[in-house]
Amino acid sequence: MKAFAYSLRKLWLMLSLLILAAIFVLAAFQFNEMKVLALTKQTTPMNASYDLIDQPMPSTDFSPHDVVEIQLKALQQNNTQDNGIEIIFNFASPDNKALTGPLNHFKQIVKEPLYEPMLNFQSLRAAEMVEEGEQAEQVILITDKYGDLAAFLFTLSKQTQAPYQNCWMTDSVMRIEMKRRLEI
């Protein structure tokens, strides 16, 4: 019972931090603080696609930037077998998987209107990765396959327990509603 209560407190803290981060990012968009979003254009389409057999897995060799880049590449190149969604599920932290898994449920979540713009998107801009100790965040502005803009906040943490000890993994991806259209 204590472990359950601890997990609930940890979840509540994580959700509170995400809400605060979202408020901060919305304020940045609303007040046009472009220094907060030092956006840089990524190449599109991203190179190399992944087959199921060679899907990347969490590794201590990957920085937070690498993890987000791997996931974005996978989402951009998602196929009918949903290999891209499987890759991002591989990089979801254990706490994230506890809330969003198993894989089939995770696939349904990613295909919902809130996250669907990330699937097979055209291009992206990425804010600077903000890394503080064992936590990292990055805002991504996506131009979806229809030409519409969508912003997402990726939140990562360095894992402390086996089998992912010292691996950066994604704790959440949160859609950020934009009040106005930004130029890419």
**Cα shape:** globular
- SSE sequence, one letter per element: HEHHHHEEEEE
Supply Rg.
16 Å
Low-confidence sequence ranges: 15-48
Distance between the termini: 50 Å
Specify the structural class. Answer: alpha+beta
Sheet of most strands: 6 strands, antiparallel
* Beta fraction: 15-25%
The number of distinct β-strands equals 6
Mean pLDDT: 79
Task: Count the DSSP helices.
Answer: 5
Could you estimate the helical fraction of the residues in percent?
Answer: 25-40%
Structure report:
- The chain is of the alpha+beta class and 184 residues long.
- The chain is 35% helix and 20% strand.
- The protein has five helices and six strands; from the N terminus they run H-E-H-H-H-H-E-E-E-E-E.
- Strands 1, 2, 3, 4, 5 and 6 form a six-stranded antiparallel β-sheet that branches.
- Strand 4 and strand 5 form a beta hairpin.
- Helix 2 runs antiparallel to helix 3.
- The termini are far apart.
- 29% of the residues are buried.
- About 18% of the residues have low confidence.
